[in-house]
């Protein structure tokens, strides 16, 4: 005999999967943002130092 469907459980599972996917996406975006910022910071100190020394 088949089990009676448990709609509340299935809905909770879908909501849990959706929340996990959203959290993964947010984390991936934050990592990409941090990488871009670190790349930008690695390149900019030399340019900033040149501008500061020229202005002084």
Describe the protein in words.
The chain has one helix at 7-55. It is an all-alpha fold. The N and C termini lie far apart (85 Å). The longest helix is centred in the middle third of the chain and has 49 residues, at 7-55. The mean pLDDT is 86. It is rod-shaped and about 85 Å long. The chain is 88% helix and 0% strand.
Q: Mind sketching the topology for me?
A:
Layout: H1 7-55
Q: Outline of this structure?
A:
The protein is mainly alpha-helical and 56 residues long. 88% of the residues lie in helices and 0% in strands.
Number of helices, counting only DSSP H or I runs of 4 residues or more: 1
Series of secondary-structure elements, N-terminal to C-terminal: H
Report the β-strand fraction as a percent range.
under 5%
Q: Which structural class best describes the helix and strand composition?
A: mainly alpha
How would the global form be characterised? rod-shaped
Q: What is the makeup of the main sheet?
A: none
Poorly predicted residue ranges: none
Gyration radius over CA: 24 Å
Biased composition (Basic and acidic residues): 10-40
Region (Disordered): 1-56
